[in-house]
Q: What sequence folds into this?
């Protein structure tokens, strides 16, 4: 921390971010205060008074971003234009072995106590002493010797430093997303995992829980919120909806201001109901097929290449997924979400794997000995054993079920005997960790940079039976990829990062551990009759989704305010 | 007395068997509550969080350890914590849902019983009349409808199209629950369609069984004697025929009530009614072991209790049974 270490400041980033948020809220002076925003971030049978931001069965859905704030919000839609929250700047040391954070001065908890570095350090210590408390920090410990963060230390009230176990330029991506807890309240909590936190003390824009019942509750404005004048909205109202049908009936009637429900025909099922009903489904993270490469025929690269070429992706996009998914250009497992990271030139030669070409697929199978040997009309393995396998998908996920049905038909067209198998969600998921499957359709996990997504997809420590991650169930170990990812993590230079990422891309395209399908839609619907400031396709200042795991929703909600005509209505009542 | 003790012994044994099955059946399904949540979040939770939740849910020990913990908790009257509504005790969720189910299905059962019995009574009394030829086949036909069809038709017609009734829920959620007129009125208003969907279907069963029993009774000698004595029709109908025909109906009402706490799954789902049926369905989908166990326990208990009551009623009403049991 002394002058001997050259420090690269990232305050410039923070300035840019501030500029971006100002731009998003350009008509600041004209904003009216008031109104209750109705949101449906998740479905539940009954509300439970749990506002523990690290409880993922109930609390996190409401407590994160609205009640509790993170240190830093990454602007995944516009990399480099982040939103500093409880921290205003951070610096990664030149040897990449520590990150220093500067906290926002003047922030108070909703009970009036000042927020300080003590709270951050406390939250870290709490996570360290309760490994089952999912704060999400990758902490080094006896049970997690490869963990990244060794310690957090307070420098002064507004500064703390995180020390790392190995050089990493990306550690801030893990640290910035933490939601600090108030030390003076949580120090008396015996078991943070089961603590329901019914009266939250927090620093977010909405902290006062009002009129709680199992059917509906309200969280109202934090009078001590650090961003003076915000939020514009008085309260967030969360009605309980137990299923898609009920949510859609209410949404169609214009009774929900902000939601994110899957729908196959939004014009008919949503927009038709109310002229203020709007939607935008930007391209989200990819859906890929994971083939069990530990067994034949999936262990054969030519088979996987033929598999990829046999798929009619145009049909899957337009028909099977109702035209709502987005095309992915290259067979690299990720798509539009990270389009700024592509090296299109380097990947051009792999484009053919994404094109529908059953003829070439058949020829490739013929050349490699995948021919019908027992005369039953279906291709067999080169050693003569028959090929017959299942394509598994959770029942009720209609776009994915249609997709898998198309995949099975495409495969049967080239002589490969593949069946669709729909399963109940839990049964489907139980198969992933055991390696007990043939072909699965699977999401990818979005992250601030593609590094996060790929490091999960190629994590080697998660390959043991029973411990397999849902992201690396393909089961392939590609050391070149892990090396490139390590190098990526050791530089802050974006051009250099991109170079290493291209290595990863080429390896994925070359070895096809996963078969790339399409980018899933990110569901986002809103009703603009009462509030203004929504993220739109023309003003996409952040990712617009309402669901858990999109910290940008905290920026989005701060930008919403009552419409003038709606305010007049409220006043008249 | 011996008869009663023997029955009680049987019920206790059945209860212990049910209690054990309740534990193992949900766990025979693949997957667990934490994994289910992970899937519904489609990976937006970290693997570390998934492991943490397994630990918090008490799923990290062996199955035998979990079973012992379950039995010990049960002996303390603790049904465990609902994983879907964490950290609410499963018993609180069960009682909440049971209240609504008891109201909805209970009222529906009583209503359909009362109306069905009256229908059956008059249909039998005036056999072949316009009333009988119209309502008997209609009620029998409605009885054959599936609840899903009736509930969806009512929802579509009266809630979605005509907008006379709300689309779902048990009450207007902007109201503060309490014993006031506005809230009670809202509860009644919201219960109209779900009640109707249950009653319309159930009437036929009571109608038919009452009618059949009545017709048999009306041919008995004592009715002929009563007629010959010149008693009024009303007196014969209510005091002589209907009263006797009611006995088997009451036994079967007792048995039906045993299943009230099973909820009315389809109706509750269609109308988003916060009853046990809907909660149990979600609990099964989400592998909420504590809730499933609790609900099965509830149901076993009430069914056994209803059987016991029916046994005792029979014993009370049928002297022949009493004599036999004394002999045994």
A:
């Amino acid at each position: 921390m002394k002058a001997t270490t050259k420090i690269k400041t990232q305050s410039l980033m923070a300035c840019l971010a501030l500029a971006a948020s100002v731009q998003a809220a350009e008509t600041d002076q004209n904003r009216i205060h008031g109104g209750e925003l109705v949101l449906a971030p998740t479905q539940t049978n009954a509300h439970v008074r749990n506002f523990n931001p690290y409880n993922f069965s109930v609390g996190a859905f409401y407590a994160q971003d609205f009640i509790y704030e993170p240190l830093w919000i990454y602007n995944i839609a516009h990399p480099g234009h982040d939103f500093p929250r409880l921290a205003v700047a951070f610096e990664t040391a030149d040897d990449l072995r520590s990150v220093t954070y500067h906290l926002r001065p003047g922030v108070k908890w909703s009970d009036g106590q000042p927020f300080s570095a003590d709270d951050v350090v406390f939250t870290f210590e709490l996570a360290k002493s309760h490994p089952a408390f999912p704060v999400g920090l990758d902490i080094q410990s006896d049970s997690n010797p490869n963990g990244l963060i060794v310690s957090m230390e307070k420098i002064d009230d507004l500064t703390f430093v995180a020390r790392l176990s190995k050089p990493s330029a990306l550690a801030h991506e893990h640290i910035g997303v933490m939601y600090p807890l108030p030390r003076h309240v949580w120090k008396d909590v015996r078991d943070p995992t089961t603590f329901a936190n019914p009266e939250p003390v927090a620093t977010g824009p909405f902290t006062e829980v009002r009129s709680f019942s199992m059917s509906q509750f309200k969280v109202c404005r934090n009078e001590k919120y650090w961003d003076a004048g915000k939020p514009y909205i008085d309260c967030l109202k969360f009605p309980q909806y137990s299923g898609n049908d009920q949510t859609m009936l209410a949404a169609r009637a214009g009774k929900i201001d902000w939601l994110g429900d899957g729908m196959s025909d939004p014009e008919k099922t949503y927009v038709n109901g109310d002229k203020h009903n709007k939607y935008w489904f930007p391209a989200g993270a990819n859906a890929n097929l994971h083939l069990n490469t530990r067994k034949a025929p999936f262990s054969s690269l030519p088979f996987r290449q033929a598999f990829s070429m046999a798929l009619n992706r145009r049909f899957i996009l337009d028909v099977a997924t109702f035209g709502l998914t987005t095309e992915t250009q290259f067979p690299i497992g990720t798509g539009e979400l990270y389009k700024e990271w592509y090296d299109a030139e380097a990947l051009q030669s792999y484009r053919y794997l994404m094109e529908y070409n059953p003829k070439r697929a058949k020829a490739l199978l013929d050349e490699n000995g995948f021919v019908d040997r027992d005369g039953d009309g279906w291709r067999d393995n080169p050693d003569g054993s028959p090929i017959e396998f299942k394509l598994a998908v959770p029942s009720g996920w209609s776009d994915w079920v249609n997709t898998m049905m198309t995949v099975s038909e495409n495969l049967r067209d080239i002589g490969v005997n593949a069946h669709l198998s729909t399963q109940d969600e839990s049964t489907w998921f139980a198969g992933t960790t055991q390696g007990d499957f043939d072909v699965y359709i699977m999401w990818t996990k979005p992250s601030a940079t593609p590094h996060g997504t790929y490091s999960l997809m190629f994590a080697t420590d998660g390959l043991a039976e029973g411990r397999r991650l849902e992201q690396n169930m393909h089961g392939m170990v590609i050391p070149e990829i892990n090396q490139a990812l390590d190098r990526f993590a050791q530089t802050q230079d974006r051009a250099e990062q991109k170079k290493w990422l291209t290595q990863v891309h080429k390896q994925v395209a070359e070895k096809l551990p996963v078969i790339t399908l399409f980018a899933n839609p990110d569901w986002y619907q809103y009703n603009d009759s009462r509030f203004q400031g929504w993220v739109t396709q023309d003003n996409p200042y952040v990712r617009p989704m309402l669901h858990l795991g999109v910290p940008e929703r905290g920026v989005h909600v701060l930008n919403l305010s009552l419409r003038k005509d709606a305010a007049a209505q409220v006043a008249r009542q | 007395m011996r008869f009663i003790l023997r029955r009680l012994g049987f019920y206790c044994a059945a209860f212990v068997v049910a209690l054990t099955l309740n534990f193992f059946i949900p766990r025979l399904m693949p997957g667990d509550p934490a994994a289910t949540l992970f899937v519904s979040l489609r990976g937006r939770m970290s693997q570390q969080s998934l492991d943490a939740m397994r630990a918090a849910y008490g799923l990290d020990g062996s199955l035998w350890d979990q079973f012992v913990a379950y039995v010990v908790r049960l002996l303390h009257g603790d049904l465990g914590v609902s994983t879907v509504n964490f950290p609410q005790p499963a018993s609180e969720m069960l009682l909440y849902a049971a209240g609504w189910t008891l109201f909805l299905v209970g009222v529906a059962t009583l209503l359909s019983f009362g109306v069905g019995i009256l229908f059956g009574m008059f249909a039998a009394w005036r056999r072949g009349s316009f009333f009988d030829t119209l309502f008997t086949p209609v009620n029998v036909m409605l009885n054959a409808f599936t609840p899903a069809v009736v509930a969806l038709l009512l929802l579509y017609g009266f809630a979605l199209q005509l907008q006379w009734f709300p689309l779902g829920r048990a009450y207007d959620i902007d109201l503060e629950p309490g014993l006031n007129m506005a809230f009670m009125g809202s509860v009644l208003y919201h219960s109209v369609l779900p009640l109707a969907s249950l009653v319309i279907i159930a009437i036929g069963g009571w109608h038919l069984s009452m009618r059949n029993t009545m017709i048999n009774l009306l041919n008995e000698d004592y009715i002929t004697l009563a007629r010959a004595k010149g008693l009024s029709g009303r007196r014969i109908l209510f005091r002589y025929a209907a009263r006797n025909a009611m006995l088997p109906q009451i036994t079967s009402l007792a048995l039906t009530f045993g299943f009230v706490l099973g909820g009315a799954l389809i109706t509750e789902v269609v109308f988003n009614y916060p009853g046990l049926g809907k909660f149990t369905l979600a609990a099964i989908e989400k592998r909420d072991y504590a809730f499933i166990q609790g609900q099965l326990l509830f149901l076993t208990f009430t069914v056994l209790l209803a059987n016991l009551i029916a046994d005792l009623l029979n014993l009370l009403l049928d002297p022949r049974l009493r004599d036999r049991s004394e002999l045994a």
Notes: Chain A has 18 helices and 21 strands. The two ends of chain A are 60 Å apart (CA to CA). Chain A touches chain B through 50 residues (CB under 8 Å).
